[in-house]
Specification:
The complex is a heterodimer of chains A (264) and B (171). In chain A, 55% of the residues lie in helices and 20% in strands. Chain A is α+β, with helices and mostly antiparallel strands. In chain A, strands 1-2-3-4-7-6-5 form a seven-stranded antiparallel β-sheet, sandwiched between helices. The longest helix of chain A has 54 residues, at 92-145. Chain A is flat. The two termini of chain A are 52 Å apart. Chain B folds into two domains: 4-65, Rna Polymerase Sigma Factor, Chain: A, CATH 1.10.1740; 77-161, Winged helix-like DNA-binding domain superfamily/Winged helix DNA-binding domain (Arc Repressor Mutant, subunit A, Orthogonal Bundle). Chain B is 66% helix and 0% strand. Classes of the chains: A alpha+beta (264), B mainly alpha (171). Chains A and B meet through helix 1, helix 3, helix 4 and helix 6 of A and helix 1, helix 2, helix 6, helix 7 and helix 9 of B.
Chain lengths: 264, 171
């Protein structure tokens, strides 16, 4: 990395947006370059002071009420009419009814807004969890493709692999054979997905490798097949009898569905 | 109410006006409730910010069509003269003055709205580049370059105003 590169990356580094490789290269350059080190120190100091000095405009206290009133404006208009009538007639009872209407209208609006953000937060978190899970499963498959990869147990005997897994996991795994589809069982490895030990079965067909990940699903008994395509790799997920299954391979859709069908 | 402060703050940064910021925030919440089917795997706060921004630019387009004055960018950084900026300070004050809120606010007002909003989204609201890319509806590379340009311009303006960096020996 030279000074020009470092200058371009200084803000991304301070914002912690660089990946590990670029971050290390940046730090290495800065540690040996006095000019870039000074720029980094200056920008760091400025960023810190700016964060304290940038204005934050606080919402006025009555804005929440205005928004809630606005959300149900039709009802609000009706309430206003009632208020007008109440004022004209000086009817205390009507005033009470109006106040109640306004109160419940605002309560309903507030509940709608809260539900909106609670629901969207849950949905977002679910999406993030799913993305994380897919990324971990794909990571397990990618590791098995590397030249330095070594299976924990090398065997083409499903029973031998099942026994080996049984001694290392607190759940039973059925190891399927896929010879009918010309997939040869190569072995197995223990992976960590979602912070738990997972059985990863490794199959090959020619120069293609396929992984089948299996682990318990305590909260869900069954789930239909789902296909995901990430970075050119296809992943199929399903859940059966409280067990999660993920198949990952660099295969076309029909070949992978064939495998998935055979595994069911 | 969730994210009300963030939505109002963003609206204020966009409009530079309290009343317009209130109107824009109300409009954004109404849109959020009526357009929930538009929600797509975005952080809820980032999603609301996108709505604030879209509502703002829709308003701007309407005003433009009607030939009304647009209240943004009335002070453009290219028009900013260092003399005008420095006129409120004596030379002594300019050189001894450390970074303060008033100085930052003065300089921020001379940035374009595009530059103001990226600084606000990152340095106040703490959105990461990916979330900013969703809010601003532009590629990640554009977020990075825009943020970099915005910070450099803000720094230059502040140096003209008398901001003195701790490690700097010459202005």
């Amino acid at each position: 990395m030279n000074c020009d590169d470092a200058n371009k990356l200084v803000y991304a580094y301070l914002d912690m947006e660089l990946d590990a490789a670029n971050s290390l290269a940046f730090e290495k350059h800065v540690s040996s370059c006095k000019a870039c080190h000074q720029i980094l120190d200056e920008e760091k100091a400025l960023k810190s002071q700016l964060q304290d000095a940038l204005p934050y405009y606080q919402a006025p206290d009555d804005l929440k009420d205005k928004i809630l009133g606005n959300l149900f404006s039709d009802t609000g208009k009706q309430a206003s009419d009632e208020e007008h009538e109440a004022n004209i007639n000086s009817n205390l009872l009507n005033v009470v009814v109006f106040n109640r209407n306004t109160f419940f209208t605002k309560l309903l609006a507030l509940a709608s807004v809260l539900m909106l953000f609670i629901f969207s937060s849950i949905y977002y978190q679910h999406s993030k969890n799913e993305e994380q899970l897919i990324s971990e499963v794909l990571g397990g498959h990618m590791r098995s493709l590397s030249a330095s990869f070594k299976a924990d147990i090398k065997s083409s005997d499903p029973d031998a692999i099942a026994r080996w897994l049984k001694s290392r996991l607190d759940y039973a795994v059925t190891v399927p054979g896929l010879e009918k589809l010309d997939y040869q069982l190569q072995g197995a490895k223990l992976e960590y997905i979602q912070k738990q030990k997972v059985a990863s079965l490794i199959y090959s067909k020619g120069n293609k490798k396929m992984n089948l990940f299996i682990w318990p699903s305590p909260d869900q008994a069954d789930a239909e097949e789902e296909m995901h395509v990430i970075q050119g790799y296809r992943l199929v997920y399903w859940c059966k009898e409280y067990m999660n299954y993920w198949v990952v391979a660099d295969l076309d859709q029909s070949s992978l569905m064939q495998v998935s069908k055979a595994l069911h | 109410m969730p994210h009300l402060s963030a939505a109002y703050n963003y609206a204020y940064w966009l409009t530079s006006n309290a009343q317009n910021a209130e109107d824009l925030t109300q409009e954004a919440f109404t849109r959020a409730l009526s357009a929930f089917d538009g929600f797509r795997k975005q952080h809820p706060k980032a999603w609301l910010m996108t709505i604030v921004r879209n509502a703002f630019y829709t308003q701007q387009q309407k005003l433009k069509r009607r030939g009304e004055v647009i209240y943004l960018d009335n002070l453009h950084e290219d028009d900013c003269q260092s003399d005008a900026l420095m006129s409120t300070q004596t030379p002594e004050q300019q050189f001894s003055r450390n970074l303060d809120v008033e100085l930052v606010r003065t300089c921020i007002n001379y940035l374009s709205s595009e530059h103001r909003e990226v600084i606000m989204l990152r340095d106040i609201e703490g959105f990461n580049y990916d979330e900013m890319s969703q809010i601003l509806e532009c590629p990640l590379g554009t977020v990075m370059s825009r943020l970099s340009r915005a910070r450099k311009r803000l720094k230059n303006l502040m140096l003209k105003q008398g901001y003195r960096q701790e490690n700097q020996h010459e202005l």
